[in-house]
Hints:
The structure holds two protein chains of two kinds.
Chain A: H1 5-11, E1 16-21, H2 29-39, E2 45-48, H3 60-69, E3 74-79, H4 85-97, E4 102-106, H5 127-140, E5 156-161, H6 168-181, E6 185-190, H7 194-206, E7 214-219, H8 225-234, H9 242-250, H10 254-271, E8 275-280, H11 289-295
Parallel strand pairs in A: 1-2, 1-8, 2-3, 3-4, 4-5, 5-6, 6-7, 7-8
Helix pairs in contact in A: 4-5, 8-9, 9-10
Chain B: E1 2-6, H1 9-14, E2 21-27, H2 30-33, H3 39-56, E3 61-67, E4 85-88, H4 92-101, E5 106-109, E6 111-121, E7 124-129, H5 145-148, H6 175-185, H7 221-226
Parallel strand pairs in B: 2-3, 2-4, 4-5
Antiparallel strand pairs in B: 1-6, 6-7
Amino acid sequence: MSASLLQEALDDGRFTVTAEIGxxxxxxxxxxxxxxxxxxxxxxxxxxxxxxxxxxxMSSMASSLICLQEGLEPVMQMTCRDRNRIAMQSDIIGxxxxxxxxxxxxxxxxxxxxxxxxxxxVYDLDSIQELMVLRRMRDEGTNWxxxxxxxxxxxxxxxxxxxxxxxxxxRVTRLAKKVEAGAQFIQTQCVLDIERFxxxxxxxxxxxxxxxTHMIAGVIPLRSHKAALFxxxxxxxxxxxDHVVERLRRASDPKEEGIRLCVETIDEMRSIRGVHGVxxxxxxxxxxxxxxxxxxxxxx
Amino acid sequence: xxxxxxxxxxxxxxxxxxxxxxxxLGCRSCTAICLxxxxxxxxxxCEAISLHSELKGRGWEVMTLTVERACEKEFLEPLVGxxxxxxxxxxxxxxxxxxxxxxxxRVVPGVxxxxxxxxxxxxxxTEKCTGCGDCVLxxxxxxxxxxxxxxxxxxxxxxxxxxxRCEVSPDTPCAWDQIVRALEMQGRTDLLExxxxxxxxxxxxxxxxxxxVNQEARPGEAENExxxxx
Lengths: 300, 230
Protein backbone atom coordinates (compact mmCIF):
# COMPACT_ATOMS: atom_id res chain seq x y z
CA MET A 1 0.00 0.00 0.00
CA SER A 2 1.26 3.45 -0.85
CA ALA A 3 1.65 6.09 1.81
CA SER A 4 1.29 8.85 -0.78
CA LEU A 5 0.43 9.68 -4.39
CA LEU A 6 4.13 10.33 -5.02
CA GLN A 7 4.98 6.84 -3.84
CA GLU A 8 2.18 5.42 -5.99
CA ALA A 9 3.51 7.17 -9.11
CA LEU A 10 7.10 6.06 -8.51
CA ASP A 11 6.22 2.49 -7.54
CA ASP A 12 4.03 2.26 -10.68
CA GLY A 13 7.14 3.02 -12.73
CA ARG A 14 5.74 6.28 -14.13
CA PHE A 15 8.28 8.96 -15.09
CA THR A 16 7.59 11.25 -12.17
CA VAL A 17 7.72 15.02 -11.93
CA THR A 18 8.30 16.97 -8.75
CA ALA A 19 8.74 20.72 -8.56
CA GLU A 20 9.91 23.15 -5.94
CA ILE A 21 7.79 25.90 -4.40
CA GLY A 22 9.59 28.44 -2.25
CA UNK A 23 7.25 29.49 0.60
CA UNK A 24 6.65 33.26 0.92
CA UNK A 25 8.81 35.43 3.19
CA UNK A 26 5.80 36.56 5.22
CA UNK A 27 2.13 35.71 5.70
CA UNK A 28 1.31 36.07 1.98
CA UNK A 29 -1.01 33.08 2.09
CA UNK A 30 -3.01 34.16 -0.96
CA UNK A 31 0.14 34.42 -3.08
CA UNK A 32 1.13 30.89 -2.12
CA UNK A 33 -2.38 29.70 -2.95
CA UNK A 34 -2.18 31.39 -6.37
CA UNK A 35 1.14 29.68 -7.14
CA UNK A 36 -0.36 26.38 -6.00
CA UNK A 37 -3.43 26.80 -8.23
CA UNK A 38 -1.25 27.75 -11.19
CA UNK A 39 0.95 24.64 -10.76
CA UNK A 40 -1.80 22.15 -9.93
CA UNK A 41 -1.68 19.17 -12.26
CA UNK A 42 1.80 19.90 -13.64
CA UNK A 43 3.74 17.70 -11.23
CA UNK A 44 3.05 14.62 -9.15
CA UNK A 45 4.27 16.38 -6.01
CA UNK A 46 5.65 19.74 -4.90
CA UNK A 47 8.54 20.34 -2.52
CA UNK A 48 8.01 23.02 0.10
CA UNK A 49 11.45 24.20 1.12
CA UNK A 50 12.47 24.62 4.76
CA UNK A 51 13.87 28.13 5.16
CA UNK A 52 15.94 27.63 2.02
CA UNK A 53 19.37 29.25 1.93
CA UNK A 54 18.84 29.81 5.65
CA UNK A 55 16.45 32.72 5.03
CA UNK A 56 13.35 32.99 7.19
CA UNK A 57 10.18 32.03 5.31
CA MET A 58 6.79 30.55 6.02
CA SER A 59 7.41 27.11 7.57
CA SER A 60 7.47 24.11 5.28
CA MET A 61 4.76 22.47 7.38
CA ALA A 62 2.31 25.38 7.07
CA SER A 63 3.09 25.73 3.35
CA SER A 64 2.58 22.00 2.88
CA LEU A 65 -0.84 22.24 4.52
CA ILE A 66 -1.85 25.16 2.27
CA CYS A 67 -0.81 23.11 -0.76
CA LEU A 68 -2.85 20.17 0.50
CA GLN A 69 -5.87 22.44 0.85
CA GLU A 70 -5.36 23.50 -2.78
CA GLY A 71 -5.28 19.87 -3.89
CA LEU A 72 -1.51 19.56 -4.39
CA GLU A 73 0.61 16.71 -3.09
CA PRO A 74 3.30 18.23 -0.86
CA VAL A 75 6.83 17.03 -0.11
CA MET A 76 7.72 18.65 3.20
CA GLN A 77 11.44 19.40 3.43
CA MET A 78 12.97 19.19 6.90
CA THR A 79 16.50 20.36 7.62
CA CYS A 80 18.71 19.38 10.54
CA ARG A 81 19.85 22.97 10.96
CA ASP A 82 16.97 24.32 13.04
CA ARG A 83 15.54 21.41 15.02
CA ASN A 84 16.81 18.85 17.49
CA ARG A 85 15.44 15.31 17.55
CA ILE A 86 12.60 16.33 19.86
CA ALA A 87 11.31 19.07 17.54
CA MET A 88 11.77 16.84 14.49
CA GLN A 89 9.68 13.99 15.84
CA SER A 90 7.07 16.41 17.11
CA ASP A 91 6.86 18.18 13.75
CA ILE A 92 6.58 14.86 11.94
CA ILE A 93 3.68 13.77 14.11
CA GLY A 94 2.07 17.18 13.58
CA UNK A 95 2.63 17.19 9.84
CA UNK A 96 1.24 13.67 9.54
CA UNK A 97 -1.82 14.65 11.55
CA UNK A 98 -2.39 17.40 8.96
CA UNK A 99 -2.10 14.97 6.04
CA UNK A 100 1.52 15.37 4.98
CA UNK A 101 3.10 12.07 3.91
CA UNK A 102 6.22 12.86 1.86
CA UNK A 103 9.22 14.16 3.80
CA UNK A 104 12.61 15.11 2.39
CA UNK A 105 15.39 14.74 4.98
CA UNK A 106 18.27 17.18 4.41
CA UNK A 107 21.16 18.76 6.31
CA UNK A 108 20.15 22.28 5.26
CA UNK A 109 22.21 25.23 4.08
CA UNK A 110 24.49 26.61 6.78
CA UNK A 111 23.04 29.64 8.56
CA UNK A 112 25.95 31.86 7.53
CA UNK A 113 24.40 32.01 4.02
CA UNK A 114 21.10 33.42 5.19
CA UNK A 115 19.62 36.52 6.76
CA UNK A 116 20.44 35.42 10.32
CA UNK A 117 24.14 34.53 10.21
CA UNK A 118 24.28 35.22 13.98
CA UNK A 119 22.05 32.22 14.70
CA UNK A 120 23.15 29.12 16.60
CA UNK A 121 22.74 25.98 14.50
CA VAL A 122 21.40 22.72 15.87
CA TYR A 123 22.65 19.69 13.89
CA ASP A 124 21.71 17.36 16.73
CA LEU A 125 21.16 14.86 13.90
CA ASP A 126 22.53 14.73 10.38
CA SER A 127 20.30 13.91 7.40
CA ILE A 128 21.08 10.19 7.55
CA GLN A 129 20.25 10.05 11.25
CA GLU A 130 17.06 11.99 10.53
CA LEU A 131 16.05 9.22 8.10
CA MET A 132 16.86 6.59 10.74
CA VAL A 133 14.68 8.33 13.32
CA LEU A 134 11.70 8.86 10.99
CA ARG A 135 11.87 5.32 9.64
CA ARG A 136 11.84 3.91 13.16
CA MET A 137 8.74 5.98 13.95
CA ARG A 138 6.96 4.57 10.92
CA ASP A 139 8.23 0.96 10.77
CA GLU A 140 8.75 0.12 14.42
CA GLY A 141 5.95 2.33 15.68
CA THR A 142 8.14 3.88 18.34
CA ASN A 143 9.83 7.21 18.75
CA TRP A 144 13.64 7.19 18.70
CA UNK A 145 13.83 6.51 22.43
CA UNK A 146 11.75 3.35 21.95
CA UNK A 147 8.42 4.51 23.38
CA UNK A 148 5.42 3.09 21.55
CA UNK A 149 3.44 5.35 19.25
CA UNK A 150 -0.16 4.09 19.40
CA UNK A 151 -0.72 5.60 15.95
CA UNK A 152 2.58 5.80 14.07
CA UNK A 153 3.02 8.31 11.23
CA UNK A 154 2.53 7.17 7.65
CA UNK A 155 5.52 8.46 5.75
CA UNK A 156 7.19 8.32 2.37
CA UNK A 157 10.80 9.21 3.03
CA UNK A 158 13.18 11.00 0.71
CA UNK A 159 16.68 12.40 0.76
CA UNK A 160 18.92 14.55 -1.39
CA UNK A 161 22.06 13.57 -3.28
CA UNK A 162 24.62 15.85 -4.85
CA UNK A 163 26.63 14.16 -7.63
CA UNK A 164 28.55 17.41 -8.16
CA UNK A 165 30.01 17.75 -4.69
CA UNK A 166 33.33 16.23 -3.66
CA UNK A 167 34.89 13.79 -3.01
CA UNK A 168 33.18 12.36 -6.12
CA UNK A 169 33.64 8.63 -5.41
CA UNK A 170 32.21 9.02 -1.92
CA ARG A 171 29.00 10.53 -3.31
CA VAL A 172 27.67 7.12 -4.35
CA THR A 173 28.68 5.65 -0.98
CA ARG A 174 26.76 8.44 0.71
CA LEU A 175 23.77 7.73 -1.52
CA ALA A 176 23.99 4.07 -0.47
CA LYS A 177 24.10 5.12 3.18
CA LYS A 178 20.93 7.17 2.70
CA VAL A 179 19.16 4.27 1.01
CA GLU A 180 20.29 2.02 3.86
CA ALA A 181 18.92 4.55 6.35
CA GLY A 182 15.50 4.47 4.67
CA ALA A 183 15.43 6.89 1.71
CA GLN A 184 12.71 5.63 -0.66
CA PHE A 185 13.24 8.44 -3.14
CA ILE A 186 16.20 10.67 -3.91
CA GLN A 187 16.12 14.16 -5.39
CA THR A 188 19.46 15.24 -6.79
CA GLN A 189 21.15 18.59 -7.07
CA CYS A 190 20.36 20.34 -10.39
CA VAL A 191 22.01 18.64 -13.33
CA LEU A 192 23.82 20.95 -15.73
CA ASP A 193 26.94 18.80 -16.01
CA ILE A 194 25.32 15.83 -17.72
CA GLU A 195 28.57 13.90 -18.18
CA ARG A 196 29.32 13.86 -14.49
CA PHE A 197 25.74 12.93 -13.71
CA UNK A 198 25.95 9.98 -16.13
CA UNK A 199 29.09 8.71 -14.36
CA UNK A 200 27.37 9.09 -10.98
CA UNK A 201 24.28 7.18 -12.16
CA UNK A 202 26.43 4.46 -13.69
CA UNK A 203 28.16 3.93 -10.34
CA UNK A 204 24.79 3.98 -8.53
CA UNK A 205 23.35 1.41 -10.95
CA UNK A 206 26.44 -0.79 -10.55
CA UNK A 207 25.68 -0.91 -6.82
CA UNK A 208 22.03 -1.68 -7.59
CA UNK A 209 20.84 1.44 -5.81
CA UNK A 210 18.33 2.30 -8.56
CA UNK A 211 16.42 -0.84 -7.59
CA UNK A 212 16.31 0.06 -3.92
CA THR A 213 15.27 3.69 -4.27
CA HIS A 214 13.74 6.01 -6.87
CA MET A 215 16.17 8.48 -8.40
CA ILE A 216 14.72 11.86 -9.33
CA ALA A 217 17.16 14.08 -11.22
CA GLY A 218 17.17 17.81 -10.49
CA VAL A 219 16.76 20.21 -13.42
CA ILE A 220 16.74 23.99 -13.52
CA PRO A 221 15.72 26.51 -16.16
CA LEU A 222 18.30 29.30 -16.35
CA ARG A 223 17.23 32.78 -17.46
CA SER A 224 20.62 34.10 -18.55
CA HIS A 225 24.33 33.41 -18.65
CA LYS A 226 24.61 35.56 -15.52
CA ALA A 227 22.33 33.14 -13.67
CA ALA A 228 24.57 30.30 -14.89
CA LEU A 229 27.69 32.14 -13.73
CA PHE A 230 26.09 32.78 -10.37
CA UNK A 231 25.36 29.06 -9.99
CA UNK A 232 28.90 28.23 -11.07
CA UNK A 233 30.68 30.67 -8.79
CA UNK A 234 28.42 31.31 -5.83
CA UNK A 235 26.38 28.19 -5.15
CA UNK A 236 28.23 25.56 -3.15
CA UNK A 237 28.27 22.07 -4.65
CA UNK A 238 27.28 23.03 -8.22
CA UNK A 239 28.99 22.08 -11.46
CA UNK A 240 28.18 24.32 -14.46
CA UNK A 241 30.14 23.48 -17.62
CA ASP A 242 31.52 26.43 -19.61
CA HIS A 243 29.60 25.38 -22.73
CA VAL A 244 26.32 25.96 -20.86
CA VAL A 245 27.38 29.48 -19.87
CA GLU A 246 28.55 30.17 -23.45
CA ARG A 247 25.35 28.89 -25.02
CA LEU A 248 23.27 31.25 -22.89
CA ARG A 249 25.65 34.15 -23.45
CA ARG A 250 25.48 33.81 -27.23
CA ALA A 251 21.73 33.32 -27.40
CA SER A 252 19.66 36.16 -28.89
CA ASP A 253 16.85 35.29 -26.44
CA PRO A 254 18.57 33.86 -23.35
CA LYS A 255 15.31 33.06 -21.56
CA GLU A 256 14.03 30.97 -24.49
CA GLU A 257 17.45 29.32 -24.74
CA GLY A 258 17.31 28.51 -21.02
CA ILE A 259 13.92 26.85 -21.46
CA ARG A 260 15.20 24.85 -24.48
CA LEU A 261 18.27 23.79 -22.51
CA CYS A 262 16.10 22.63 -19.61
CA VAL A 263 13.74 20.65 -21.88
CA GLU A 264 16.77 19.03 -23.55
CA THR A 265 18.17 18.13 -20.13
CA ILE A 266 14.85 16.52 -19.17
CA ASP A 267 15.03 14.45 -22.40
CA GLU A 268 18.58 13.39 -21.51
CA MET A 269 17.51 12.40 -18.01
CA ARG A 270 14.79 10.14 -19.44
CA SER A 271 17.45 8.25 -21.36
CA ILE A 272 19.67 7.55 -18.36
CA ARG A 273 19.31 4.13 -16.76
CA GLY A 274 18.01 4.28 -13.22
CA VAL A 275 16.49 7.78 -13.44
CA HIS A 276 12.81 7.65 -12.47
CA GLY A 277 11.81 11.27 -12.74
CA VAL A 278 12.84 14.89 -12.66
CA UNK A 279 12.69 17.53 -9.96
CA UNK A 280 12.25 21.05 -11.32
CA UNK A 281 13.71 23.93 -9.36
CA UNK A 282 12.69 27.20 -10.97
CA UNK A 283 13.75 29.71 -8.35
CA UNK A 284 11.48 32.80 -8.52
CA UNK A 285 10.35 31.55 -11.94
CA UNK A 286 7.70 29.05 -10.91
CA UNK A 287 5.25 30.14 -13.63
CA UNK A 288 7.53 28.57 -16.24
CA UNK A 289 6.98 25.07 -14.82
CA UNK A 290 3.72 24.32 -16.76
CA UNK A 291 5.41 25.19 -20.06
CA UNK A 292 8.54 23.12 -19.25
CA UNK A 293 6.49 20.09 -18.29
CA UNK A 294 4.26 20.41 -21.37
CA UNK A 295 7.13 20.91 -23.83
CA UNK A 296 9.08 18.01 -22.33
CA UNK A 297 5.98 15.85 -22.65
CA UNK A 298 6.05 14.70 -19.03
CA UNK A 299 2.85 16.22 -17.69
CA UNK A 300 1.39 13.73 -15.18
CA UNK B 1 45.40 24.17 24.49
CA UNK B 2 42.87 26.94 24.92
CA UNK B 3 42.91 29.56 22.17
CA UNK B 4 42.03 33.15 22.93
CA UNK B 5 42.52 36.54 21.32
CA UNK B 6 42.95 39.96 22.84
CA UNK B 7 39.97 42.23 23.19
CA UNK B 8 40.39 45.64 21.54
CA UNK B 9 41.94 48.12 24.01
CA UNK B 10 38.97 50.48 23.69
CA UNK B 11 36.66 47.70 24.91
CA UNK B 12 38.95 46.91 27.85
CA UNK B 13 39.11 50.60 28.77
CA UNK B 14 35.32 50.85 28.66
CA UNK B 15 35.15 48.18 31.39
CA UNK B 16 37.37 50.18 33.72
CA UNK B 17 34.99 53.05 34.48
CA UNK B 18 35.12 53.81 38.20
CA UNK B 19 38.23 51.71 38.81
CA UNK B 20 41.02 52.88 41.13
CA UNK B 21 43.53 50.11 41.55
CA UNK B 22 44.01 47.89 38.50
CA UNK B 23 45.97 44.64 38.20
CA UNK B 24 46.58 43.23 34.74
CA LEU B 25 46.96 39.48 35.16
CA GLY B 26 48.87 37.46 32.56
CA CYS B 27 48.98 33.65 32.34
CA ARG B 28 52.05 31.69 31.23
CA SER B 29 50.00 28.74 29.95
CA CYS B 30 47.63 28.62 26.95
CA THR B 31 47.01 32.33 26.39
CA ALA B 32 50.77 32.96 26.45
CA ILE B 33 51.31 30.39 23.71
CA CYS B 34 48.56 31.83 21.52
CA LEU B 35 50.07 35.30 22.03
CA UNK B 36 46.94 36.73 23.63
CA UNK B 37 47.59 36.95 27.35
CA UNK B 38 51.12 36.00 28.39
CA UNK B 39 53.61 38.15 30.28
CA UNK B 40 54.39 40.24 27.19
CA UNK B 41 50.75 40.97 26.36
CA UNK B 42 49.94 41.68 30.02
CA UNK B 43 52.77 44.22 30.21
CA UNK B 44 51.66 45.86 26.98
CA UNK B 45 48.09 46.11 28.22
CA CYS B 46 49.32 47.48 31.55
CA GLU B 47 51.35 50.18 29.79
CA ALA B 48 48.47 51.10 27.50
CA ILE B 49 46.07 51.42 30.43
CA SER B 50 48.62 53.55 32.37
CA LEU B 51 49.12 55.81 29.40
CA HIS B 52 45.38 56.24 28.95
CA SER B 53 45.03 57.04 32.65
CA GLU B 54 47.75 59.68 32.45
CA LEU B 55 46.40 61.28 29.28
CA LYS B 56 42.82 61.37 30.50
CA GLY B 57 43.68 62.14 34.13
CA ARG B 58 41.91 59.06 35.49
CA GLY B 59 44.31 58.61 38.39
CA TRP B 60 44.37 54.82 38.11
CA GLU B 61 47.06 52.83 39.88
CA VAL B 62 48.03 50.11 37.40
CA MET B 63 50.29 47.15 38.01
CA THR B 64 50.84 43.82 36.26
CA LEU B 65 51.47 40.28 37.40
CA THR B 66 51.85 37.05 35.45
CA VAL B 67 51.19 33.64 36.98
CA GLU B 68 52.07 30.13 35.85
CA ARG B 69 48.47 28.94 35.39
CA ALA B 70 45.55 31.15 36.30
CA CYS B 71 43.16 28.17 36.35
CA GLU B 72 44.87 26.63 39.39
CA LYS B 73 44.23 28.27 42.73
CA GLU B 74 47.69 27.60 44.17
CA PHE B 75 49.27 29.90 41.59
CA LEU B 76 46.93 32.77 42.51
CA GLU B 77 48.08 33.14 46.14
CA PRO B 78 49.79 36.51 45.42
CA LEU B 79 46.40 37.98 44.46
CA VAL B 80 44.48 36.89 47.57
CA GLY B 81 42.95 39.88 49.33
CA UNK B 82 43.13 42.15 46.27
CA UNK B 83 39.96 44.22 46.03
CA UNK B 84 40.60 46.41 42.99
CA UNK B 85 39.93 45.61 39.32
CA UNK B 86 41.64 42.62 37.68
CA UNK B 87 42.04 42.68 33.91
CA UNK B 88 42.38 38.97 33.21
CA UNK B 89 44.54 38.07 30.24
CA UNK B 90 44.00 34.41 31.13
CA UNK B 91 41.24 32.38 29.45
CA UNK B 92 37.66 32.41 30.72
CA UNK B 93 38.51 29.54 33.06
CA UNK B 94 41.37 31.50 34.62
CA UNK B 95 39.26 34.65 34.95
CA UNK B 96 36.60 32.74 36.90
CA UNK B 97 39.09 31.06 39.22
CA UNK B 98 40.66 34.51 39.88
CA UNK B 99 37.21 35.79 40.81
CA UNK B 100 36.75 32.85 43.20
CA UNK B 101 40.10 33.62 44.84
CA UNK B 102 39.43 37.37 45.05
CA UNK B 103 35.71 37.73 45.83
CA UNK B 104 36.06 41.45 46.59
CA UNK B 105 37.77 42.24 43.29
CA ARG B 106 36.05 43.10 40.02
CA VAL B 107 37.43 40.74 37.38
CA VAL B 108 37.07 41.92 33.77
CA PRO B 109 38.09 39.94 30.68
CA GLY B 110 41.03 41.23 28.65
CA VAL B 111 40.72 38.43 26.09
CA UNK B 112 37.98 36.59 24.23
CA UNK B 113 38.33 32.87 24.89
CA UNK B 114 37.59 31.02 21.69
CA UNK B 115 38.27 27.30 21.54
CA UNK B 116 40.42 24.25 22.11
CA UNK B 117 42.92 24.11 19.33
CA UNK B 118 46.51 24.03 18.21
CA UNK B 119 49.05 26.34 16.59
CA UNK B 120 48.90 25.74 12.84
CA UNK B 121 51.81 27.95 11.81
CA UNK B 122 53.32 31.26 12.88
CA UNK B 123 50.47 33.18 14.49
CA UNK B 124 47.74 30.84 13.22
CA UNK B 125 45.63 28.81 15.62
CA THR B 126 42.98 26.31 14.60
CA GLU B 127 40.14 24.77 16.54
CA LYS B 128 40.41 21.00 16.94
CA CYS B 129 38.17 19.84 19.78
CA THR B 130 34.72 20.78 21.09
CA GLY B 131 34.91 18.64 24.21
CA CYS B 132 31.78 16.66 23.22
CA GLY B 133 32.71 14.12 25.88
CA ASP B 134 32.38 11.06 23.62
CA CYS B 135 35.38 10.89 21.30
CA VAL B 136 34.95 9.35 17.82
CA LEU B 137 38.44 10.01 16.43
CA UNK B 138 39.06 6.27 15.95
CA UNK B 139 36.26 6.24 13.34
CA UNK B 140 37.31 9.40 11.53
CA UNK B 141 41.03 9.06 10.88
CA UNK B 142 41.91 11.27 13.81
CA UNK B 143 40.03 14.27 12.41
CA UNK B 144 37.13 15.56 14.52
CA UNK B 145 33.91 16.02 12.49
CA UNK B 146 32.04 17.44 15.48
CA UNK B 147 34.44 20.36 15.65
CA UNK B 148 35.84 20.71 12.17
CA UNK B 149 32.64 20.18 10.14
CA UNK B 150 30.49 23.33 10.26
CA UNK B 151 27.42 21.10 10.63
CA UNK B 152 29.00 18.50 12.95
CA UNK B 153 27.89 15.78 10.51
CA UNK B 154 28.70 12.18 11.41
CA UNK B 155 27.93 10.41 8.13
CA UNK B 156 30.06 12.11 5.52
CA UNK B 157 30.32 15.46 3.75
CA UNK B 158 27.21 17.48 2.92
CA UNK B 159 26.45 18.60 -0.63
CA UNK B 160 28.39 21.80 -0.11
CA UNK B 161 31.82 20.16 -0.10
CA UNK B 162 33.78 21.07 -3.23
CA UNK B 163 37.48 20.87 -4.08
CA UNK B 164 38.20 19.95 -0.48
CA ARG B 165 36.68 23.17 0.81
CA CYS B 166 33.77 23.81 3.18
CA GLU B 167 30.71 25.60 1.80
CA VAL B 168 30.87 28.06 4.68
CA SER B 169 34.23 29.53 3.67
CA PRO B 170 36.81 28.83 0.98
CA ASP B 171 39.46 29.29 3.71
CA THR B 172 38.12 26.32 5.63
CA PRO B 173 39.04 22.78 4.62
CA CYS B 174 36.10 20.35 4.49
CA ALA B 175 36.76 18.06 7.47
CA TRP B 176 34.89 15.20 5.80
CA ASP B 177 36.91 15.55 2.62
CA GLN B 178 40.01 15.18 4.80
CA ILE B 179 38.50 12.22 6.64
CA VAL B 180 37.55 10.41 3.41
CA ARG B 181 41.02 10.91 1.94
CA ALA B 182 42.79 9.90 5.15
CA LEU B 183 40.69 6.74 5.49
CA GLU B 184 41.44 5.87 1.86
CA MET B 185 45.13 6.22 2.63
CA GLN B 186 44.78 4.05 5.72
CA GLY B 187 42.79 1.42 3.82
CA ARG B 188 39.82 1.90 6.13
CA THR B 189 37.09 3.02 3.69
CA ASP B 190 34.87 0.34 5.24
CA LEU B 191 34.30 2.85 8.03
CA LEU B 192 32.63 5.14 5.50
CA GLU B 193 29.99 2.57 4.58
CA UNK B 194 28.45 2.27 8.03
CA UNK B 195 25.66 4.54 9.20
CA UNK B 196 26.53 6.24 12.46
CA UNK B 197 23.36 6.52 14.60
CA UNK B 198 22.27 9.72 16.40
CA UNK B 199 24.88 10.82 18.92
CA UNK B 200 24.43 10.85 22.67
CA UNK B 201 25.11 14.50 23.49
CA UNK B 202 24.74 14.07 27.26
CA UNK B 203 28.49 13.99 27.91
CA UNK B 204 28.70 17.31 26.03
CA UNK B 205 27.56 20.72 27.19
CA UNK B 206 23.97 19.57 26.49
CA UNK B 207 24.05 17.66 29.77
CA UNK B 208 24.63 20.92 31.67
CA UNK B 209 27.94 22.11 33.16
CA UNK B 210 30.22 19.13 33.48
CA UNK B 211 32.13 17.86 36.50
CA UNK B 212 34.53 14.99 36.30
CA VAL B 213 35.51 13.14 39.46
CA ASN B 214 38.60 10.95 39.30
CA GLN B 215 38.10 8.57 42.21
CA GLU B 216 41.73 7.48 42.18
CA ALA B 217 42.82 11.04 42.84
CA ARG B 218 40.28 11.56 45.63
CA PRO B 219 41.60 11.32 49.18
CA GLY B 220 40.79 7.90 50.64
CA GLU B 221 39.38 7.22 54.10
CA ALA B 222 42.83 6.77 55.66
CA GLU B 223 44.05 10.06 54.25
CA ASN B 224 40.94 11.89 55.42
CA GLU B 225 41.49 10.46 58.90
CA UNK B 226 45.12 11.54 58.81
CA UNK B 227 44.04 15.03 57.75
CA UNK B 228 41.45 15.05 60.51
CA UNK B 229 38.51 15.20 58.10
CA UNK B 230 37.05 11.76 58.75
